Amino acid sequence: MATPHLHASVTRISPLSKSPCTIRPLERSRWGTGDYVLAEVEDPGPASTRLELCNGRLVEADRGDLVIGALGKRFATLEGTGDWEAIGPDGRMHALTEGGILGLCQMRSALLPPMLPLSYRGHVFLGGEPTRMADFAIRGPLRVLGVPTVLIIGSSMSAGKTATARVIIRLLSRAGLRVVGAKLTGAGRYNDLLSMRDEGADHAFDFVDAGLPSTIGPADAYRDAMMPLIGRIDELHPDVAVVETGASPLEAYNSDTAISLIESSVRMTILSVGDPYASLGVMTAFGVRPDLVTGPATKTAAGAALIEKLAGVRALDVRDHEAHPRLNSLLREKLGLEGPRGDD
């Protein structure tokens, strides 16, 4: 009996989980970012074995399992780095993310388990041609985003950006507004989008929908891939867009380019930080003055007070229900909306 394939969540935009495909090696000179490949799980040992499937569920991979993911790159400040271009002739690689970005791990934090080891078995072919994420990317009109937008940026990964987006989406949707959530940069997981939908977003998108496994790469290529996605969001005519950029604007994920693509529509900017001093660091280095600072650094009155002293910007723990009346008031002011009033 053939071993079933585990389709990682980077395959969710493709028909691979439902279509017959063939697997065969492809000469290395033809490999590229976003290629769908099949890899076999080696002995995981102490490595993390979790993989996120295309439906968002997590599974524990075991030795001999066959995984379909996408060649890509990761440069995470707190976890690790890896690159498909570093894969050697032996075809050994790793799952750089639970979502199925595949490449050779080059460095990881000593605080985390090793990444799941894999061996290349071949590229995924449909209709006689190798498949890549770009084949299934959103196609749409190239138009400027004209939707009032809440932009959420951060000081680093794991600074509370997605948690903040969920709160904002919840408040806006409960006020009866049509909301689109989006994560424009990073090396994300499908779970981020599912959580936005759970909180009431009518639609949620990320860079995977644009055909990118992560957003590391030349700015021009990133811009070309994202413009149809931005056009699709505008085409939906939501009342509000809640847009998150992964990592920080100063890292390798093209967040600065993403912000430049939507800045004309931004009505409110929220900075999420894990440390009070990081608020001033991002504001100074990136030249941005947010309307609000939030994140783990605001979970105590001491942290919020220090941020306001250092940066001269309002600090608020948006996950604190007692703060929601003030947050709602700020949203109404910045977005020019009568709502949201649901949690006042």
Automatic annotation (TrEMBL):
Highest taxon in the source lineage: Bacteria
InterPro entries reported for this sequence: P-loop_NTPase (IPR027417)
Protein name: DUF1611 domain-containing protein
The organism of origin for this protein: Aquisphaera giovannonii
